[in-house]
Structures are given as structure tokens and as C-alpha cells.
Amino acid sequence: MMSEFFGDISPIKFEGPASSNPLAYRYYDPGRVVMGKTMEQHLRFAVCYWHTFCWDGVDPFGMNTMDRPWIGQSDAMAGARLKAEVAFEMFSLLGVPYFSFHDRDIAPEGATLAESNRNVQVITDLFAEKMQETGVNLLWGTANLFSHRRFMAGASTNPDPDVFAYSAAQVKNALDVTHKLNGQNYVLWGGREGYETLLNTNMQRELDQMGRFLNLVVDYKHKIGFDGTILIEPKPQEPTKHQYDFDVATVYGFLKRYGLEDEVRVNIEVGHAVLSGHSFEHEIATANALGIFGSIDANRNDYQSGWDTDQFPNNVPEMSLALYYILQAGGFTTGGLNFDSKLRRQSTDPADLLYGHIGGMDTCARALLAAAAMHESGDLNALVSERYAGWDSEVAQAMLSRESTLESIAERVERENIDPQPKSGRQEYCENLVNRFL
Amino acid sequence: MMSEFFGDISPIKFEGPASSNPLAYRYYDPGRVVMGKTMEQHLRFAVCYWHTFCWDGVDPFGMNTMDRPWIGQSDAMAGARLKAEVAFEMFSLLGVPYFSFHDRDIAPEGATLAESNRNVQVITDLFAEKMQETGVNLLWGTANLFSHRRFMAGASTNPDPDVFAYSAAQVKNALDVTHKLNGQNYVLWGGREGYETLLNTNMQRELDQMGRFLNLVVDYKHKIGFDGTILIEPKPQEPTKHQYDFDVATVYGFLKRYGLEDEVRVNIEVGHAVLSGHSFEHEIATANALGIFGSIDANRNDYQSGWDTDQFPNNVPEMSLALYYILQAGGFTTGGLNFDSKLRRQSTDPADLLYGHIGGMDTCARALLAAAAMHESGDLNALVSERYAGWDSEVAQAMLSRESTLESIAERVERENIDPQPKSGRQEYCENLVNRFL
Amino acid sequence: MMSEFFGDISPIKFEGPASSNPLAYRYYDPGRVVMGKTMEQHLRFAVCYWHTFCWDGVDPFGMNTMDRPWIGQSDAMAGARLKAEVAFEMFSLLGVPYFSFHDRDIAPEGATLAESNRNVQVITDLFAEKMQETGVNLLWGTANLFSHRRFMAGASTNPDPDVFAYSAAQVKNALDVTHKLNGQNYVLWGGREGYETLLNTNMQRELDQMGRFLNLVVDYKHKIGFDGTILIEPKPQEPTKHQYDFDVATVYGFLKRYGLEDEVRVNIEVGHAVLSGHSFEHEIATANALGIFGSIDANRNDYQSGWDTDQFPNNVPEMSLALYYILQAGGFTTGGLNFDSKLRRQSTDPADLLYGHIGGMDTCARALLAAAAMHESGDLNALVSERYAGWDSEVAQAMLSRESTLESIAERVERENIDPQPKSGRQEYCENLVNRFL
Amino acid sequence: MMSEFFGDISPIKFEGPASSNPLAYRYYDPGRVVMGKTMEQHLRFAVCYWHTFCWDGVDPFGMNTMDRPWIGQSDAMAGARLKAEVAFEMFSLLGVPYFSFHDRDIAPEGATLAESNRNVQVITDLFAEKMQETGVNLLWGTANLFSHRRFMAGASTNPDPDVFAYSAAQVKNALDVTHKLNGQNYVLWGGREGYETLLNTNMQRELDQMGRFLNLVVDYKHKIGFDGTILIEPKPQEPTKHQYDFDVATVYGFLKRYGLEDEVRVNIEVGHAVLSGHSFEHEIATANALGIFGSIDANRNDYQSGWDTDQFPNNVPEMSLALYYILQAGGFTTGGLNFDSKLRRQSTDPADLLYGHIGGMDTCARALLAAAAMHESGDLNALVSERYAGWDSEVAQAMLSRESTLESIAERVERENIDPQPKSGRQEYCENLVNRFL
């Protein structure tokens, strides 16, 4: 059975850079081997359920613009099944290896949590069949703890302990189905974990609640034998005025505080990085330095808009630097490249969903080629190593060890009359070097 | 001997809110008792040396506009002595209890570090006399590890270990003189500890260097018996593209990583908070929640400028909320309220230095009155407590303890069919409540 | 008949600054005379229909949180009538003299434009009665040309001329009913007049369309004898990536280009000013300088959020400076102070609607008192006049007239060896002066 | 005579994309013909004097880092001559056809304006010889009306009319020498034309002064027969809190107000566009739409820094879109591509000056190839034309002409029951199309 939503569009194929076919890949050639792995194995693309199948063009100033036959059906479970149908058709058309979802994306909320959970289970059973048929796998699952009004003041950080309990129960189910579908990761995005105003908020209490909640999740993961990675997705704000998981460095401090730095990693989104005042590659490099890199939400943020625009990636230089730092740290393990990207509101045709993903996948594939070439050339690494070479000396290493003290170092500076001379950092040279690979 | 820099201006006195004398305090009444302490004891005002006595109006697009007779003297030490003269005259005119300085603010760089250190010691000996005479004390000292070209690629995070060593030796001297002058705190601001481009940077290495450096400083502090507080001052960027001490939460993670969260606290600046995408009160509340609040750099940032404008505080509501959170946490201990504030470039008269500080001090004094009234009324605290009251129940507390698991909670949610209902957060009510005290 | 929506709350009364009654005015005393007019005559408060009665707490990440009985009624016109009932009850409770609306706020969209127009006419007939009963008047009306999907690519700037036509017809009706209700102004906000991407946009064409549209509106206004003011509301972006009416200065250039600078004025919103990188008082002062000041949308934007937060005003200093510049230019004529302000999403109680407006009105009333005192003191004006006094000389005026040339001026500079010396701008002095009145 | 500043570096040659020589062009091939003109004719590259030869690494937090032998010479005119020597050597090494300067970049300020003017004349006479020798031409000259303390409160907008006069005399001389050197344009950047605080400012007065000043300049240009273009460079802020020439649209309104829209055009800088909340291509497209496009200052702004970072261009996609819109409007006439770009402070080697320019020139050359291919393909233009095709009908054109009225249009909408249906804007398709050419 085919839904006919995409009409007679054929599966998207690689045709090479010279192709002008808008429904072909120009760079994404899944089987092409780069640095010992195929492109597919490197990039681990996932299509997300929410933007792709649940959003119909509503924005804060306007109604829906897109006609999605599965939205608004009187039989909500029938709508959910049609949605799944179209979703797996699209995964197949694109040839992506993974997808990702929130529990509420895939199945309607019921009258009780028990009923909601059952709805989710029904649809995930359907997913299991379709995954079998198509070979598409689950990159990650997650629970939507932000859309319903009960979460308006937070999930685990809610002033009402019943919301904490409800959230725990909902996450348990979401983690169960993610486990059943052999998900590679489980994600927590604290969309409402933060505050609208400090005036009515007890931050310390809320952080403790959130730390406790995450420990509950980690304990349960081990109990059921889920060996995927637990990921936190940092975001500075929106929908709340301020979110606790502001950025990678903040999440690291939170994990340290609650003893979770070896258990939990981060899922970094381009747009969230931008909103928090960082570059995307900064967030990745920070996660590498702190040992908590996990996965990415690939998209693009409009640099002139102060909110999360979730556009499809099309900026090759931005994505190349990101993938360079990911390759530097050994590439993805359980993580992958999830398109947390949505169409512009005026892109109302079904084919636009394909154009968005094709462009995003080609951008990332091209960026992978650039990043791999940059990495393999070793030029930049050599330059960096050379810049810090002075630290290899014995006397330098001694300063980093417990042997030295401020006094002993000061004494040596005076004795040797140390007077360090600046040396060019060669930034423009480095930037030109990078441009050679883009 | 008087320098005559300020002409015949008399010491600034409290004249009350009705006064229209621009050279009088309208709110700052040092001896007035508020919540059991005098205003002077609460606010612990400090005048900073750098903006006030070292800056002559230069900006990135223009030359100096202010005539400061001590700048550019051919005998640099004579200039430094004149500067000290004027500084203590000004402290006395204003009646401030504290001041603060970088080593390079107070004495010229010598041909060697040893000579630079001696210059600093000469002037701090002069300070000791003047402090004795005037009763003015030292809120904090610090070392300037960012202006000289040797620090262009960082101090402790420099790729050249000799700069690390040089910095260690310079900090030792700065800490020694701070200790000698009975400074209440010692501050580290990592102005160049960050990067201009990730391309030539090894972030992990640099963070480890910085962590080691701070441990050296803490060890030395204990060795010499300095019982002031070691403070880090977060700032997201400027002069570097990205500073490692981005904001309070980032600094917390850094301290945890290097085992220093019980040794080091933060000195929070209004302008730095704004540049990092937070409100000032957010940074204070965060430091309170994480247990690392230390001191503040009071100023104001232009909300439309994307750089550190360091204006004198004049926003009573902004400062009132900050002081409210400081009072909530018990007020300053070793910390204080340092004016990291500078005149606008066109404010070229000596009297402008007084207007700036008078306005800033009155703003803070008025804010203290508002904050204390808000705190004493207890209305906001009661509202917050009531909002979280549900957590006092046994079953709620059990969720926070080790007894509960995700499963046990989920089981209870289903059994009791828990369906939490949202309750108004009453933000506008809270905001109106605050306005009652401003 | 009473709707009972607000329960047994009594009309809000002035009780003075000492009152701690959250349902009383502390500063807004409608009949109090300030600078020769009552507060009510100065401030000309208006409650807006859209945020207050049409929004139920939906945000881009979440469902409705507020229960508004008139939303979602199966008989949409019955819902519209109930909404009108509650609206006028609230106007009376607050004692506001004005309200404002979009056509689609007050009545449901019909199957055709003709039917939609009739729905609007039915409700505005009801308004006429209620206005008669209550004495509440209409500050302005406007047409919603942005919510329906037909406007997704703009109204007058749409690539499809049928949308231009449809918009013209809709505006005609909205202007007709505004005229019938004796509206003081008619507003155009170009929510979708801009672009999502330049790539598919012909900017010149769209500007010409928009210029033509506005001329059509102005011509029609004169034809029907509407003597209210036509107002454009600048906003830089959101919902579009970029709006053509970016800020006051941009609107001025647009009006000049299409010959409308004497016909149209601006309605300036606090939040829109902030989003465009200006202070609110800057936008007002600019409109004054260019002769196009009209009215204001009073609200407040969160300074850390990059989108339009539309919070109730509660920042007395910000509002005081704005009102100071408005008083400087003679105060409102047809304009007024419309609360384009909405509750926070968690403020779910009916009483929160009252708290929001009470706090906003008190903020503005207090700001009016401050602004009037500042204006009446004349201190700031005197300082400004004195600063430019040099321009009163004959030789200075000659430079501004057609007599002088670059050569004649240069010749005089050399002859007189003119060497201007800088003079303090006294910014901190001015800021302290302002704080004396706040 | 050679200065030996650049050691034994040979002139930079084109070696093609495969070259890994950091001192070669990979894309800039001056004689290569693109769309009927050589690359050199299209791009009209200019090296700027100020960043390249006058800046030594000083920043607001630090001293100079670069050793420039011509800075700080006791014989300032000898320093100026050495600087000119090195400058023309560098122009020749790079093979750029143009340069640009401020009067104060090239020669020291004298004791009087007359002496300053003579210094400028001496050096420009030297320039004339070197231009003859090397074939390098002047893209534009300008007067520095912002660095000296006399301009701290503005040049033409100064409250002191003597500063207006002084500025007029200085501009006369700068325009004279620009004319003598056959400059293609004359630029005015109002670095201090704005305000630090509205409180001490009369905006209307200052705008009138600025309008009058610009008219004086235009009159004088005609008088002396200068046929270059007068250009204004928009910038929103920095050094002032707010500059009057905020962005392109604001400048347009200003030109219209003072009757200069046919006389003056804009010089658009990448970084200034970014700071004003626009994309670079937006500013170019706006200038095209309003008929005032002139020239560009090519650079790049760090997207995470809130100040003018003036980095060398290296973002090919950003520059490609800009050049696409420039080609769409027919390419440069008198304008060109001036590198208002400076080294990073840590790039201290003379060779870094070459790396910066080489990278920038290659970025622009590569962008030109992409833009030309995009333009020549016509795909995007076709898509845009098709999108607006409905406007070609007679009835649509009638709405734009004076024949239609709001009533006649409304009558037709009702009669024909017009109900426009949205059509996909195909943004992702367009973006993919663009990526095909990058």
C-alpha cells in the first residue's frame, strides 16, 4: 500500500555534482568510502518525525499553510497510522538509515497516561514491522514533556511534584519503546525546564529535582539493559525565557554536580548553539574537550533572527568545520546526524519536504568530504601541535604536575629572566588553509 | 599636600532625596541602618583604579579626550605617585570604604618582571600609608595578564609555557601585595584566556593549563595565610572571540572539573552577564544556587551595544533585583560592590568622575532600600514557598530520595491516575509586587 | 447581563502609592491634572482585543493553557458576542477610555470575504451599543492581513495580485467600520510584508506594491471623510525573516518615496524598537525629529529574548523617558497608549488579565508623573539648549544657509585658525538628573 | 629602493585551485574573462591604508602586538614616506588595481589645519608619482573626522559650529586631493555623527546640520568638476551608541529628506550590515531597489561578536550572494571592492598581511565565478519572474495605476468572489539551486 502523498516521485539517487536534477543527490553517495567507512556509516542521517510529519505551517502569527491529510482526522489513531505510512515511504524515498521521534509525535494523547502509553505502543509495534521491511533504524526516541499544558511550568522541575511523577512515568514508557525498537540513543530536551521569571522560581530546588530525575532515568536504563546513550540537548531559551541546559558547558557542570558526567552525553543542535552565543563548532569542540560529545541535531539558524529557525542545513563551511571536529574526536559512535529541520512556512508542496532533506544531506555529504580531506591532510593538526610544542619540555611539564608551586615558578622566572616574545597565531593562514578544502 | 585635580570640591555628603545638589548623595547615607547593618556595611563600595585613573578617553576609533596630568609623565613613577595622590583624594571626597586595582594600573611596567614587581611594591607601600591615613581599605587586587603583547595568546592558557611561568610569577607578586594590604579578595579575570579562532587552538590543553594555574594560586594562598576569597570573573568574550570563563554556570563546571568548587567563587559583572545572554539577577541567582557567589562588579551595559560598555549603574530596578537576590543569600561576606564603571568618552571634566560615582552609589543605595523592603515584607518569598509546597509531602520527598525508581513512580501514576492540573504562575502579580518596592 | 468571567471583582479604583491591594491603582488617578490635562487625557489607555481576548496560551512549543469560554464555541458568532460581552466588562472594570482591534479578532472568518465582512459589521454594531453604554471609545481599528494562509507571502506585497485585491477589499471594510465607530486612528501593520528569503523575492516590485496600496488607503480615507490618522507600525522581523517597515527611519524613507510623509504617521511599539536594535525612546525621538510621531503600543520586551515578547510594561525608567519625549513634542493628539501586551503563558487566571493591565497602567501613570516633572523642571532642556548655543551666532547660521560654500568656510577656518576644543558632554550628570525624577 | 619589510617575497601569482602555495592565488586570475569583463575589471579590488598600514594591534584591552617600523618615528613625515613606500610595494606584490585612504592615515596631523593639509598634499604628491610608476589607482579618499578629540561629539553634527566649520575645511582638502589623484569616489563615514545619549542631544538639529553639510560637499564636487561618486557608508553604531547613518534604508530616507537621492550613493560594508541586523545581501538588494548602490567594503564579521570585527572575507557563500545581487544590478560602475579588513591581533608577521589579502581576494574571485554562473544560468531569475507573473495581467496593472480605488477593487473582489490560494515559495528548492553554483 502506498499513500500517494508523494505522487510518482522515485527514490532519490546519487547523480554526482554535475547533475541539475533537483530530486537527485549531488554529493551524498551512501556507499562511497571516506576514511575507511562509507558515507552512510559516517553520517548516520536521521529524519525527524515532528517537523517533518507533525507541523503544518502554523506559526505564532498565522494558521496552517500545509495540507497534511493525516492531521485533524476524526479517528486520531487512523491519522497516526497514515502518518507512519507516509513517514516510512519518505525514509525509503530518501534512503536514510535512521529516524527519530517524540512519543506524542507518533500517537495521540489519550484520556489517561495509560491510554497515551498504549497508543504509543500500538504505533511503535507498527514501526517495528516497517523497520523490518525497510531496514530503517531508530536513532533516538524521546518523550514530549513540553507541549501539554500540564508541563507549562516544567516537567521534572515543576513546582508540582505530581508533574514530576507524571513525567517519570511518561519517560519510562518512551524509554521502554525506544529500547524495544533498538534505539541507538535516548534524548532529553528540557524545553520547559527553566523559568519564565525568577520571581516565582526556586532555582536550587529545581536543579536538584532535575538532577534527581536524570539519575532515575540512568538507573532505569541500566536496569532494563538499554545500551544506547542518554543524551541531553542543550538550548538556552525558547520556549522558556531561560532553560537550565543553556549550552554544553552548562550541561557539563550540571552533570558533574549530580554525578552523571560518565553516564550522559550531549546532543548538540546548530541553532541552539547560535542562540546561546556560540558557534556550532565551538559547542562540538567543547563537548570533545569535556568528554561528553554524543550526537547532533543538524539544521541552520538564520543569523538575523533571534529565535530557533530550524532551517535545513545548507551552509557547507559551517557544517564542514563541525564535521572536522567530530572526525577529530573519532566520529559518531551511537550518535548521528538528525535533521531537526523544518520547511519554511511557505514551502507547502510535498516535494518541498524532499528538497529540504536532499539539500541538507548533500550539504552534509559535501562537508564530510571537506572535513575528511582537511583531517587527512594533517596540515591544521600539525600547525596546532607545533604551536604548543614548547609544552613538551620537561620544565614545562613540571609546571603542570604537582611538583611546582607558584613560588618555585616565580623563582625560576626571576632567575632565568624569562621574557616571552609573542609569536604569530597565523589565523588568516589557517582560514585560507581551511578554504582550500571547502 | 593636595593635588588640586578636583579643585575646591568638598567631600560629598548625604542631603536626602529632595536635594538638587548634583554633588550630594540623595540616597547613600553610610550610617543608616537597614536590616541590622549600616548601608556602608551592606554595600561595601569600591572605586576601581583602572577606569577611574588610567583611562583617558581613548577608544578604538579615537584618541584620548581627557586630560589626566599623571598620564604620560616622563618620570613614570612620579606619575604613579601623583595618580595615587589623586586616587586617595577621590576616595575621601566620595567617602568610599574600598578600592580595587590591577598591578599594572598602579605602577609602570619595568624592564624586567623583577623591576615591575618592585614598582608595584613601591606604590603599594605608599598605599599602605594612605590607607592608614584615610581608613580606606582594599576590596581586591588582581594582576593584569592581558594588556602586554606577551599575553596576546593568553596567560595561563598560552601555547608558550614561558608565558604560563611569567603569569604565575606576576600573580604571586600581585597576591603578595594584596595580602600585605589586607585585601578582602583576590580576583582573576581571564581576559585573554580563550581563543580568537578554534583553528589554531587545543581547547582541552588550555583548559587543563588554566585548571592547573588556578590550583597553584589556591595552594599559594593557603601557604601564605591569605584568608581573602579567590574570585573568578566570568565574561563571555571581548577581548577574545570566546573566553573560557563564559558565565557563572560555565565557571562552576570548570571549578568542579578541577576540584576547586569549595575554594573559588565568582565576581559577577552586570555588563558581562548581559553580554552572555543572561540578566544580572540570573547570574547572581545561579551563583547562589551553585554556592559560589562572591562579589559584584557594578556597572550597566547599554542594551543596544554588543560590547562591554561599563557605564555607571543608574538603573534602579535592575540593581534592586540583584541586591534582593544578594540579600536573600545573606549579603556580602568578603565581597563588595566594585564600580567597574567608566565615564563616557565625552565626559571630560574632573567633576564628571564624581558625578559618575555619586549617581552609581545613589542608585545602589536606593536599590538596597528597595531590596531590603522587598525582602523584609516576605511577600515574594511566601509566594514562592507556597508554589512549591506540594514537595513537602512524604510521597514527593520519596521521589527525591534513593527509595523511588522510575518504575515505582510510574506504577503510582497509573494506580492513582495522576493528572496534574496547571496553576497560574502569577508572573504579572509578582512583577507588580516588586514595583511596589521600587 | 454579566458574563461572570471575572467573578465578583469590583471596578478597579485609585488607592494611592501606599496601597497593597493588588486590585487597585497606586498611581493611575484618571482625573488628576498634570500639566493642564487629566491623566486620562494624557495617557489615552487602550486595551487590545487580540492578546487579551483571543490568545489562550498557545506557543510554538505548546498547546493552550488558558480556559476562555468564548474560544472554540461551535456557534462562532455566539462566541464572538460572548467575547464582546467580557471585553466591555473588562474595559469597565479597568476604567480604560479606549480599545483597539483587528477585524478577525472580533468576528469569525466566513466562507467568503463578503460573509467575513458581514460578521465584522454585526459585531461592530454590537460594539456601537456597548460603546454608547460604557463611554469606552475606539483608539484604532485594523485588518488582520497575516494570519490566514492566503497572506503567507504578504498582503499588498504578495506575488499574487489577487491577494493584493483581497487585502484592499478587507481593508476597505475595516476602515469603514473604524470610521463608523469613530476610531481615532487606523493602523497598518505589515506582518507578512517582507520576505523569508531574498532568493524568491523582487524587493523593488514589492515596495512599489506596498507604496501603491498605502496610497489607495489614504485616498479612500479622504473620500469617506475619516479624519483619524493613518498609522504604520514598524517592526523589523517576525513573523517574516525581514519586514519592510523595519523601524521608524525606514518607514520615513518609504513614506517619502511614495509621497506620503504628510499623510501617514507611525505607531511605535516598545518591543519592536528593541528588536530593531534601538531603544524605545530613540524611536520616539526619531519620529519627532522626522515629524511622523503618531501613537504607541505600550509593552515591554525581555532583553534576553530575541523575539517579540509583548509583556506588560513594568519598567518605569524606560517608560518615563518615552513619555518625556512624547511630552516634549506636545503629547498625543489622535494617538494613545495601546497595551499590545499579553499575559505570560502560565498566568492562567482571569484575574491575571487584570493584574497585567493594572501593573501596566500604574507603570505608565508613574512614568507620566516623572516625565512631566522632568519636563516642567526644564533642567534638561536648558542643558541641551546651552550645549548648542554656539549655533545661534550669525556666522554659524550662515553656514546652514545657502550663502556659504565649502570654500568660503574653509577660507574662514584658515584665516581665523579655528581650533575647536572639546567640552564635556556631561552624560552622567544628565543621567543623575533624570534619576532625580524617577 | 625597497623597504625590505616583506623580505624576499615575490609578487603573488595565480596558480589555480590545486595549488597549495599559501602565497599564490588559487582563484583570482586577473585577466580571466567572466561575463565579458576580466576579473580585475569586475572586482576592482582596493587595499585600505588604515587597517593595513596604520594599525599595530592595539585593542581596547591591550597594547600593540605588531612591529611596524614607520609607526612612532620621531620624524613623522619620514614615517609617512616609509609607510607609502611599503604600501605601494604591497600593492605591487598583490597586484591590486586600487587603494583607499583617510587623510590622517597617510600624513601626520600638524599644529594647525593648514599644516595638516600641507602634510596631506606632500604625501599625495608622492602618491601621484608612485601611482604613475605602478599603475595602481585610487578607489576613494576620505577625511578622518572621528579620531581627534575635537570630533568627540561629532563633525557636522557637533553642538559646536566651529567643529562643523573645521570639518568642512578638512573635507575640502580631502576632496581636493582625491580629485587630484583621480579618485573614483569620495566617501563619508559618519563615525561620530550620532549620539552617546539622547539626553544631551537635539536630533533634529543634528540631522539638519548633517543634511546641510552633505549639500555643501555635493555642491563643491560639482564646482571642481569631480566626477567620482559621493558615497555614504552606513553603520548602526560604534564608536557612538547610535549613528544616524544606521543602514541603507535609513540613509535613503536621509537623502530624500535633504534632496540628495540622485547625488549620493552608499558604500556598504559586510560587518556594518551584520551589526544593523541585516544580511549583507539584504543591504545590497535594498540599495539596488532604492537606486543608491555604490560600492562595498568587503570584510567579514564574527557572528558571535557584537562589534565591528573587520575580518578578511573568507565566507564564499556570503560573498557569492552579495556579488550575485551586484551583478544583477549591472556590476560596479565607479565602485569597487575595498578590503576594510584587518588582521587578527595575533597575526604579527608581515606575511600575515599578505595571507589576509590573498585569502580575501581568492574568496571574492571564487564568489564572482559562482555569482556569474548563477546569473548566467538564469534559473533563479526565471523562478522569480514566474512567481510574480500574475502581475503582468491588465487587471493587476490597473490596480497599480491611478485608475483603481479601494472601492473599485473591493467591488471586483466581491463580484468575482476572489479567494486566493497560497502557492509554494519553494525556499529550499531555491537554496539548493544556489548551492549548485557554490
UniProtKB/TrEMBL annotation, chains A, B, C, D:
Binding residues annotated for Mg(2+) 2, in chain numbering: E269, H272, D308, D310
Domain Xylose isomerase-like TIM barrel, chain residue ranges per copy: 118-282
Catalytic residue positions: H102, D105
Source superkingdom: Bacteria
GO BP annotations listed: D-xylose metabolic process
Catalytic activity reported: alpha-D-xylose = alpha-D-xylulofuranose
Cofactor note: Binds 2 magnesium ions per subunit.
Keyword Metal-binding (UniProt): yes
UniProt subcellular location: Cytoplasm
GO MF, one example: magnesium ion binding
Binding positions (Mg(2+) 1): E233, E269, D297, D340
Keyword DNA-binding tagged: no
Any one annotated GO CC term: cytoplasm
EC number: 5.3.1.5
Keywords associated with the record: Carbohydrate metabolism, Cytoplasm, Isomerase, Magnesium, Metal-binding, Xylose metabolism
Listed cofactors: Mg(2+)
Family: Belongs to the xylose isomerase family.
The protein's assembly and partners: Homotetramer.
HAMAP family found in the cross-reference section: Xylose_isom_A (MF_00455)
Name recorded for this polypeptide: Xylose isomerase
Species of origin: Leucothrix pacifica
